[in-house]
Amino acid sequence: MSRITIDVLERQAEAMGLKVLESDIPGTTCGLYCDRLRTICLADWLNDRQRLCTLCHELVHAKYRDLGCGTRFGVKCERRARRETALTLISPSEFAMAEGTWDGDTWHMAAELDVTMQVLMDYRQILKDGLFAKRP
């Protein structure tokens, strides 16, 4: 199975009519989606792996036209974005191979799968919760 690349995600954003900008976002926030402006802002300090995972995450928010984490639906929207990001970026077969190769070591597995630790932990939580059938 071929992995999703940043180019694929950028083309997806373009097809959705979204602008993707890099910006000096304050604090530790990696990315933001503004539905009113149909714009995704990515922190300009992200490495390639973080950029891939963050863009995928923000594209999920854009797909559902989420209004933001501060709304009463924010927790549900964020949970959905994290779940769909993990299921999009990690294939079951590659996860199984990485887990076997690295004996469950999360840092090495994340590096092997080219995802952040957060995305890997979200994928593991999906498996633990039995939510695997809900692939996007």
UniProtKB/TrEMBL annotation:
- Where in this chain does the record put each IrrE N-terminal-like domain? 13-120
Pfam families linked? Peptidase_M78
Q: Where does the source fall among the domains of life?
A: Bacteria
Name the record gives this protein: ImmA/IrrE family metallo-endopeptidase
Query: Organism source for this protein?
Result: Bifidobacterium adolescentis
